[in-house]
Design goal:
Elements lengths: L9 H33 L14 H22 L3 H20 L1 H4 L3 H30 L1
Helix pairs in contact: 1-2, 1-5, 2-3, 3-5
């Protein structure tokens, strides 16, 4: 049995819980992706030429930026802070430019881009529902 806040409907409570679960799950995944980028930068990645000093220049630009942005977005989403979602959008834009704009340099990562699009779409849908519910409550 859940305890609802004063003036909060069951639908609002469900939306809030779903948003927190989505943010926490995405936060863990993004933080893990950040750890992967750091492992790649210091040479733990088993991929040939994975270390920073052996990377091509285009990866020397992209990898450190993503290595910093991914964990920051993960922490922001875990805390369900608004800036976590904003940084996630920034990461998705950077990776879309990398993998769709320059597939010869960075390769194609359509699955990763689809995961970003699905997660951000779900987050946007939950936030729109919460926004509409807040608007209905204030008009009453």
């Amino acid at each position: 049995m859940t305890i609802e806040l004063a003036g909060e409907t069951a639908a609002t409570s469900l939306n809030r819980r779903l948003t927190v679960w989505l943010c926490r799950l995405a936060g863990l995944l993004l933080f893990g992706a950040g750890v992967f980028y750091w492992a790649r930068l210091i040479g733990i990645d088993p991929v040939h030429l994975g270390r920073f000093d052996l990377m091509p220049i285009w990866w020397r630009i992209a990898a450190p930026a993503l290595a910093v942005l991914y964990p920051v977005a993960g922490i922001g989403l875990w805390m369900t802070a608004g800036w976590g979602g904003v940084i996630w959008v920034l990461i998705a834009i950077i990776e879309a430019v990398m993998h769709l704009g320059f597939p010869a340099l960075f390769g194609e990562n359509l699955l990763g881009l689809a995961a970003h699009a699905w997660g951000l779409g779900m987050l946007a849908a939950l936030r729109i529902v919460a926004w509409r519910d807040d608007g209905r409550r204030t008009r009453r």
